[in-house]
């Protein structure tokens, strides 16, 4: 069970000291000539120095050795991570992936080795774009840490808890929880069982909780339910590997000690986790279907007002009570890209074929919506209050960007389901014809 301590709050100014070294945080300044306990000071920037105060993110780390003490980086081979979006020809078709494979029993893959890019857009060098990855791993990262120089990772475990050690401390992230580890933050992941999940990466900008508009001051994700680790360090002089994702490729270097040697830290640029069951769900209580934006947990905004480079949206269990309404998602064509995954249960619009650990992609302006069975049932059902999606958690990564599927996503994973289009075959023509003159 999760017995770790956390700090609660979103976008808060935190400070934390490992209790083994009380007073390790310099009390009156950021950069003393000599730090308590002989620690080194290091600054981690999450935004430009000159970013407006409301967006400005940085943290001061007090550590046993500065991060710079490492050998040169070399390419890390055998990775299915990419930001090359031209591997395949564009494909506007609705896509559905069966559950992505877990490593087989005689394979050993840690989180880094098990990361595969499915689709994405943009360029980490231009600090604009996203990538969607899936991971499947069965061993812990042994004396190996990872950091992403390209952007932030929003990690959605689907199977298996992740024990994540970061420079800021430890967190355990279970399925139905998510975490965000931002650009530059080093972490290592331990797993106890074959584990699988999804990663939404955003280049160059950070996630926020959405504005609430007329909803008011409260609702959706509550800032106090976002949890940040408390300082924890290890003083271990061993060969340690640091893997970096840099401009879409992985590189590896070695150093002679654990990078998890931060004794205390202070700032507002931190990793955090969030339990999806704590989301305060809002929905229509009389008629019509609310847009899925009502279920936005986190958003990464573009420069265009109200338009997200990436929204993280969930479809949690909730009561459906609308009168004279077609209750499932409406048929539509969207100017945004919609990538969906399933943590457990069944998605209301597609009871078959879209399975936990699998995915769908409905690209810009590609028509989609409930399958024929769902339509037929929803147009006939007695509209009593109904708890939908009990025992279910589907989610969507929605982006204003056009997404390209990688070679891994289209071919190598062997999970694309060629039968997907069939769930929309055989719509009955119900048209009753014009009024007779
Ligand atoms: O396509 C989907 O299943 C996601 C979705 C759900 C919904 O309730 C309304 C619109 C929408 O795109
Ligand atoms: Fe949709």
From TrEMBL:
Residues 13-32 are annotated as: Disordered. One of its GO terms (biological process) is L-tyrosine catabolic process. One of its GO terms (cellular component) is cytoplasm. Keywords: Dioxygenase, Iron, Metal-binding, Oxidoreductase, Phenylalanine catabolism, Tyrosine catabolism. One of its GO terms (molecular function) is homogentisate 1,2-dioxygenase activity. Residues 5-276 form the Homogentisate 1,2-dioxygenase N-terminal domain. It catalyses: homogentisate + O2 = 4-maleylacetoacetate + H(+). Its cofactor is Fe cation. It comes from the Eukaryota. Its EC number is 1.13.11.5. Pathway: Amino-acid degradation; L-phenylalanine degradation; acetoacetate and fumarate from L-phenylalanine: step 4/6. Homogentisate binds at residues 347, 368. InterPro entries: HgmA_C, HgmA_N, Homogentis_dOase, RmlC-like_jellyroll, RmlC_Cupin_sf. The active site is at 289 (proton acceptor). Fe cation binds at residues 332, 338, 368. Residues 277-431 form the Homogentisate 1,2-dioxygenase C-terminal domain. Belongs to the homogentisate dioxygenase family. This is Homogentisate 1,2-dioxygenase. It comes from Aquatica leii.
